[in-house]
Amino acid sequence: MTPQPPTGPGGTAAPATPVTPALSVVRAGALTTVQDLGRGGRAHLGVPRSGALDEAAHRLANRLLGNDEGAATLETTVTGCALRAEGGAVTAAVTGAPCPVSLDGRPAPWGVPVRVPAGSVLEAGTATYGVRSYVGVAGGIAVEPVLGSRATDLLSGLGPDPLRDGCTLPLGDAARTGGGPGPGPDAAPWPAPPRELVLPVVPGPRTAWFTPGALRTLTTGTFRVSPASNRIGLRLEGPRLERAVEGELPSEGMPLGALQVPPEGRPVVFLADHPTTGGYPVVGVVPERALAAAAQAPPGTPVRFTPA
Questions:
Q1: 0.85 surpassed by pTM
Q2: Domain span at residue 205?
Q3: Where's the Carboxyltransferase domain (predicted)?
């Protein structure tokens, strides 16, 4: 007996239920999070900004797909991730740290929109240089926003959990959001981080807490990126910055890019998930425009600071 389509009132055929495209996570990788442009303007409430560490790479992925630049993407860490298109074809683009891209095991382009048929698996592999790659999808990742952002904040726990194998990610309506290859070239260059990271630093506000020798060391010494670095801060190994004043400050506001010096004397550059207050002295601040390169510097990268 031939199956009959479902019927509505009066025997008419019931309308088909639309299937919304989604992504299922085949391989979550070492750390893959949902990120957008973050929760700016809420530091006075104790809420970190969060958002994509390499904002330029995040914006590029969205521009290639015709999304609003604030649409959520996936930020991978070193080992990439693999995603299966469910419920229909999707268009995706991989930017940020260069990595091998494949579609159902066959090579696919990096930095170019790729059509992923329903049931196919797109994989962003291990970064060949840099740390964080970005996987954008037409329509954006449509997880529920928290305080106006879909970003995962590892310090406060706001936003969605980091990806895990088997979870499913809803997608936005590509037609409604304008998703689809944007105007202009269908591929765009991305500036890979330099082999040596040179960061400008604006002195203060707590330079008086350090000896003159420490301030000279800051701008003449060579540091290296520590393996303990994360989305909260770029931790550095190298010469110690000697304090002229011991003890701790009353907690005060911490801006993005603050160069905070804990008691052991090795500075930490605060990144997107940094705490909004702290009691260790800040010897200087790295301007925001330089932080994307800092976010892409792998452990062992030499770091120098120059006066801004």
A1: yes
A2: 197-307
A3: 44-308
